[in-house]
Amino acid sequence: MSDLTAELNTETKEELIKRYQEIEEKIITAADRADRDIEKIKLVAVGKTHPLSRMLFLKEQLTDSKISLTSFGESRVQELLAKEEEFPGKINWHFIGHLQRNKVKYLARLENVTLIHSLDSLRLAREINKRAKKNDRVMETLLQVNIAEDENKYGFMQDEVKEFLQQAEEFSHLKIKGLMTILPHFAEQEKTRPYFQKMKELQAELTAAGFKLPELSMGMTNDYEIAIEEGATILRVGRALFGPRDY
Ligand SMILES: *Cc1c(COP(=O)(O)O)cnc(C)c1O
């Protein structure tokens, strides 16, 4: 065990394990229902606002998990860097929030930041490519799509995606592995389904046009089971794993 997890009390540990087991069960059941291979579904544990100790405890518990929790997600660069400093080089990070161009350099120099989910403009792509090149690496990203055409969300509109993908082909140090979306909050879970279906259709359309975009990052605490049924390959779950957030 790492020193950091020693500070957690038994109650917290039990709660984390219980939450994890519930999610594991629900993911397996949803995958079964949709007749999907569980190995094609990756869980990203979104730790934002929660201490690193909880995240590490979870990581230590997962050795015999039936689902694949491969990485931890953060939506703010400062928070990711602070946690990275506490436990350097040991966590596989995904960056999932809106990324400002002046912060790309901090992520590009960390080898263990392995995926940026939130590529949302050509200017950002250019910066990621530049910084990845400086660090002699290829940065993997997903392309964020504003599928619900929500004014409050970042991302490309559906009809802009193809042109962007063509433009992005010139970037030798940036690899786009798939699509990502963040839906607006719906009180009724089922309302998310048509948007997940649209994402899947868009992926199919682009694949038919010759682009390789195997990953679909969609589904959060409120709707990950529906996202699984509709083809998600990466789930980003925070509250259901770590509890409510205090800002
Ligand atoms: C916070 C966050 C999540 C996780 O949300 P929960 O509702 O806590 O599961 C997923 N994706 C992004 C981009 C986020 O910012």
Tell me what the structure shows.
This protein has 9 helices and 8 strands. The protein has helices at 10-33, 52-61, 77-86, 104-108, 122-134, 161-168, 193-208, 224-229, 239-242, and strands at residues 42-46, 68-74, 93-95, 113-119, 139-144, 174-180, 215-217, 234-237. By secondary structure, it is α/β, with parallel strands linked by helices. The relative contact order is 0.15. The longest helix has 24 residues, at 10-33. Residues 46, 48, 75, 96-97, 182, 220-221, 236-240 line the site of pyridoxal-5'-phosphate. Pyridoxal-5'-phosphate (PLP) binds next to β8 and α9.
How are the elements arranged and paired?
Blueprint: H1 10-33, E1 42-46, H2 52-61, E2 68-74, H3 77-86, E3 93-95, H4 104-108, E4 113-119, H5 122-134, E5 139-144, H6 161-168, E6 174-180, H7 193-208, E7 215-217, H8 224-229, E8 234-237, H9 239-242
Parallel strand pairs: 1-2, 1-8, 2-3, 3-4, 4-5, 5-6, 6-7
The chain binds pyridoxal-5'-phosphate.
Pyridoxal-5'-phosphate (PLP) is lined by residues 46, 48, 75, 96-97, 182, 220-221, 236-240.
Q: Care to give the gist of this entry?
A:
The protein is an alpha/beta fold and about 250 residues long. The chain is about 40% helix and about 15% strand. It contains nine helices and eight strands.
Write the H/E string, N to C: HEHEHEHEHEHEHEHEH
Task: Catalogue the unreliable spans.
Answer: none
Oligomer: single chain
Helix proportion: 25-40%
Biggest β-sheet: count, sense, barrel? Answer: 8 strands, parallel
By DSSP (H or I, 4+ residues per run), the number of helices equals 9
Q: Structural class, from helix and strand content?
A: alpha/beta
Bin the strand percentage: 15-25%
Q: Let me know the average pLDDT.
A: 95
Overall shape: globular
Gyration radius, rounded: 18 Å
| Small-molecule binders | pyridoxal-5'-phosphate
Lateral arrangement of strands in the main beta sheet: 7-6-5-4-3-2-1-8
Alpha carbon gap, first and last residue: 29 Å
Q: How many strand elements?
A: 8
